[in-house]
Amino acid sequence: MKLQLAIDLEDIDGAIRLIDKTKDYVDIFEYGTPLVINFGLEGLAKVRQAFPDITLLADLKIMDVASYEVNQAYQYGADITTILAAAEDQSIKDAVKAARDANKQLLVDMIGIHDIAARAQAIDAMGPDYIGTHTGYDLQALGETPFETFNTIKQAVKHTKTAVAGGIKVDTAAQIIEAGPDLLIVGGGISTVDNPTQAARKIKEMMPK
Ligand SMILES: O=C([C@H](O)CO)[C@H](O)[C@H](O)COP(=O)(O)O
Fold first, then answer.
1. Does residue 172 have its Cβ closer than 6 Å to ligand 1?
2. Is the pLDDT reported for residue 9 higher than 90?
3. Looking at the domain covering 2-206, what would its CATH class be?
4. Where are the domains of the chain?
5. pLDDT of 157 over the 90 cut
6. pTM of the model
7. What number does the ligand 1 atom closest to the CA of 186 have?
8. Is the ipTM of this complex over 0.85?
9. Cβ 32 under 6 angstroms from ligand 1
């Protein structure tokens, strides 16, 4: 099981400071969608330049022009990028091919999908690296969590690694770790607490090796 730190609410210098503070405990660093919006792929390249050896995911949440956009993420330093499960099947297949050709990885984000089991099964057959359950900030604000939908994905997916994201904190991590995701994605639960190093260490120590 791997721990991914989603870096969303920072500028590039803040992202670099956060990586410095947590890099002993985090397996994958996410250049979050708000950073993509605010600083583009140039910002991603700066993070990559500062840390040549980390595993870096660019959360592009691609919907179309998939081969081009996936390749742009890799060109600017990402090892992994993301496409939305709501995209056309053709876009997801193109993204998977682009990832395979570049020898990089792709995560399909299920945010906004309601027929979770059927869509997860269809995407499983397309061959991405990860399928992720994701309760976005707008539904977290209404009290929703990704725990139940993660179990549906875990049942539905046979070949692809599973990921889970959405409001996971130090005190709720154990519950979702128990459910056995391959990738646990935590943003604010690490980045907005007083001691991000300690939060990352605590979550990492709960996870099986
Ligand atoms: O992908 C995310 C969200 O859509 C904003 O871009 C977050 O990175 C993801 O939800 C994880 O962050 P937390 O919910 O704060 O753990």
1. no
2. no
3. alpha beta
4. 2-206
5. yes
6. 0.97
7. 16
8. yes
9. yes
